[in-house]
Amino acid sequence: MSQDLRTAIVELNRDAVPTLVARRLEAGDDPLEILGDCRAAMTMVGERFQEGEYFLAELLISAELFKEAAALLDPHLGDSDNDKRAGVIVLATMRGDIHDLGKNVFATLLRAHAFEVHDLGVNVEPAHLVDEVQETKPDFVGFSSLITTSFDSTRQAIEMLEDKGLRAGLKLMLGGGVTTPGLAKHLRVDFQTLDASSGVAYCLEEAAGAGA
């Protein structure tokens, strides 16, 4: 049945996914194993997206399916999944921008790959982001921008992280339709992308390197 669940997610079968998850829980399957199959399916979806077989619509649907499956599994997981955490990431759409679609997809895909995600939402003040970094000590910070009015607050947040000595060892990422490699260089971030899937691939690669 593990293959059935993976196939249902990859093929975007809205009706089958919750039914298969519930059926496996009733059969006594390990919730972590079920979650692992969901994550494997999301990896396959990401591969199809990278190859141009799937587009943003399919990515959004698969993210919703994963969220639904994870919600069904969550009461059965307890704290057992914490040992498999891939890393910690803080995400924010900074002050001046209230768009969050891309960020939300990115957050869901990250959770599908065992990252602990702290999503601060939209129109976030630089000081709030810095406070969150101080509290959670993440491995990554992701800035989402869909309009240029958020660039100044993003710059302020990065400068505050540097001033407080929080920048060392912290990977900064920049994503969104108006971002460019030139802007990333100007802001001194480590990675820039226009799509969520490549951002996940970057986080996985960096997390694997840190654990090596």
Average predicted local confidence, pLDDT: 91
Oligomer: single chain
| Unreliably modeled segments | none
Instruction: Compute the separation of the termini in Å.
Output: 33 Å
Give an overview in words.
The chain is of the alpha/beta class and 212 residues long. It has two domains: 81 residues, Orthogonal Bundle (Methyltransferase, Methionine Synthase (B12-binding Domains), Chain A, domain 1), CATH 1.10.1240.10; 127 residues, 3-Layer(aba) Sandwich (Rossmann fold), CATH 3.40.50.280. Helix content is 57%, strand content 12%. It has a five-stranded parallel beta sheet, with helices on both faces. Helix 2 packs parallel to helix 4, helix 4 crosses helix 5 and helix 6 crosses helix 7.
Overview in brief:
With 212 residues, the protein is of the alpha/beta class. The protein is built from nine helices and five strands, in the order ααααβαβαβαβαβα. It folds into two domains: 2-82, Orthogonal Bundle (Methyltransferase, Methionine Synthase (B12-binding Domains), Chain A, domain 1), CATH 1.10.1240.10; 85-211, Rossmann fold (3-Layer(aba) Sandwich).
